[in-house]
Amino acid sequence: MSIAILMVTIKLLGEPRMSLSAPAMFVADSPGLDFLNSVATPVDAPLDWIADGEGLLAWLEQAQLVSTQVLQGMRKDAMPGELDRVAAQARDLREWFRGFVRAHKGKPLTSAVLDELAPLNRLLERDEGYELVIPETGTGHGLQLQAMRRWKSPESVLLPIGLAMARLVTEEDFSHVKACEGPACTLLFADHTRARNRRWCSMDLCGNRAKQAAHRHRHKALH
């Protein structure tokens, strides 16, 4: 996603409510953290990409966590208001996990936090995943295993989100999970830079704001 395009789109919208025409933000280098960043204040007004059921499905598609075909089926088969209720569950899940990440970022996770992750494990226990033998992708002519999932209800779209969260806590070094240093920014990211010195969610957003603020400060000091 182009941050510049996002900023222009939001300014043209001029509304605090997210429009589905505005692309979601994926700047965290981690799908689990990108989920937390599905609510943000990239310009002036707070924006929530999963404010309703359609927003949730659109975000899942942009995040490539659920296939377009599955999401189209969800739209077709869901009862009135059902997807909005799932989106409300997703928002509750997001804010619970935000509290966990903010409490533990900057230091390695240990098994001592396992009890805190009970809500995540309860979600993962709902999964009806399985694997199928399919033709090998690419130029090969052999066979491979592919993970599949039974999408029995709209609530099942929360499962790939849960898996992204689980991978964050098991595969990411929480020592490198950071919050953007922008004064009003709420975005989180995994610092994968070689020097581990990333400070901003994006140089196009908070990085440039910091440069402009520093320039104004120097100019004021000289005059």
Task: Name the descriptors.
6 strands; 8 helices; about 10% strand; Jann2411-like fold; about 220 residues; mainly alpha; globular; two-stranded antiparallel ribbon; two-stranded antiparallel sheet; about 45% helix
Structure overview:
This protein has 223 residues and is mainly α. The chain has one domain (3-222): Jann2411-like fold (Orthogonal Bundle). The chain is 45% helix and 11% strand. It has eight helices and six strands. The protein has helices at residues 3-13, 31-36, 53-62, 68-77, 82-104, 118-124, 158-171, 203-222, and strands spanning 39-40, 47-48, 129-135, 143-149, 177-179, 188-190. A two-stranded antiparallel sheet has the order 1-2. It has a two-stranded antiparallel sheet with strand order 3-4. A two-stranded antiparallel sheet has the order 5-6. The longest helix has 23 residues, at 82-104. The termini are far apart. The model is unreliable at 7-20 (pLDDT under 50).
